[in-house]
Amino acid sequence: MTSIGLLASAFVLLAACAGTGLSGKTPEQVVEQRAQQRLDALMAQDITKVMTYTTPTYRMRVTPERYASRYAGVSSWTEARVGQVNCEEDRCDVKVMVTYQMSRPKMINTRPLDETWIKVDGSWYIYHQQ
Prior knowledge:
By secondary structure, the protein is an alpha+beta fold. The protein has one domain (27-126): Roll (Nuclear Transport Factor 2, Chain: A), CATH 3.10.450.50. It is 40% helix and 32% strand. The chain has a four-stranded antiparallel β-sheet, covered by helices on one side. The chain is globular. The model is unreliable at 3-21 (pLDDT under 50).
């Protein structure tokens, strides 16, 4: 095989690996990154971006305005980070740690939130029931 043929084969193999999720990251690493990006967008109150992390079928049923009302208290969050990710097959359980400022009594509290992420058509999304 010529060097051009080997190079072409390498590109095909790399593309195939990227398409099947074999890009070197575990599902836990991929979900952790996506979950943190979603949390960062929530903290920035960028609902349009946050919605991109929900499943395609959820986005067809729920408006951004309705979704934003689900997170009305996010303005009091001072920090949100992914704590732990455990995956089995096409489902991951994610524990998120959210720190927020309470107005009365004036104090800071941190609490865990549990999220479920699922794999749909090769991509990971947060799963919400309507």
